[in-house]
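Q: Sequence in, structure out?
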Amino acid sequence: MPRSAELVHAVIKAYDVRGVVGEQIDVDFVRDVGGAFARLVRDGGAERVTVGHDMRASSPELSRAFAEGVTAQGLDVVMIGLASTDQLYFASGRFDCPGAMFTASHNPAKYNGIKLCRAGAKPVGQDSGLATITAEVIDGVPGYDGARGTITEQDVLADYAQFVRDLVDTSQLRPLVAAVDAGNGMGGHTVPAVFEPMTVGVRPLYFELDGTFPNHEANPLEPANLVDLQKFVLDTGADIGLAFDGDADRCFVVDERGEPVSPSAITALVAERELGKEPGATVIHNLITSRAVPELVEKLGGTPVRTRVGHSFIKALMADTGAIFGGEHSAHYYFRDFWGADSGMLAALHVLAALGGQERPLSELMKQYEVYAASGEINSTVVDAPGRTDAVLDAFASRTDSVDRLDGVTVSLGDAAWFNIRASNTEPLLRLNVEARTASEVDALVTEILDIVRA
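A: Exactly. Output:
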């Protein structure tokens, strides 16, 4: 059935499918997306697709409709049921088949979406398939004359848990206590399975799967959503706090004082551990990540490679360069040993291994990786994002050392200070990140820039 091009382009974005259920996404729409995706991967030789879903109320029905679209094109479907996104990537890698994960990640309850990958968890973005899917959904998905595929179910949670534990040696950990905020998302499903055999005492917070997010939004990138975990760490006397987003592909860290640890510092820590396994390897970092990351990688003899923001872009670059690891400012962490895909769980295990392998508290351990002060990502809702960006550039023209347009606009100001402004690919937002040598410098820059952006 042909569909409105405006609607389809609004929902099928740069590297995933995402929209409001009932208004932009329904069973008919995702059935067509499933059919178009099946045609895309069938032409590449695929014979089956694996499908998982998060805890949102709409996810089971939508994932089933997608599976119907796939089987109508002659491909089989393996339904893995409730899953984190990295659990779906595991299934795609283990089964060596394309995959679809039904989730809207950290977005509010009214949203849902699909993250698509080819066999071995290889990304599907606009340039690698989403544009083709968009065109077919707009024009109507052609029929298929062959036999319909089958739908089977398979639970992979235990296999996934064993696989990620095998990638990080946690056998020599001193006893640790970890406070974990699952945000009513899929961390409540995966954390018990992964942590159960380990010498880590888990103090659970909001582990009940609930796609209405009754306690707080499952987006730990927003400081307000970390407040409960910060208090919980102090109340429980935990050694570390871990916060997962809705589909648990991202993990944020809080130290024993209840203070957030920047994802850039986690990127540096994991990069050091991975380079210890393979000296001289390539490490990917996106352009919002602290400049402390490439500086550390170079110091350790590795090769840092800078890329734009977005999981499909960084995954493609991981494959092209053979990078051992990649990290983003948003707490997405990518591992070559995990088919180049991102896994918040693997990042958490690396941090636990580093912490539990020595005696210092986490705050002391992380000091070596927290070289610069940073604002974190600050979002502003604006009507004219290009106009506001130009106004900022004009205001800083006399102080600018260089301007980089790899993704949005990155402005270097000298003496390690820089900022980036970029429009979101998934929401009507303008995102700001600032880094400098001191917190006072960062605060001053943030105030000046936001006064212009929000004028």
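The two ends are 44 Å apart (CA to CA).
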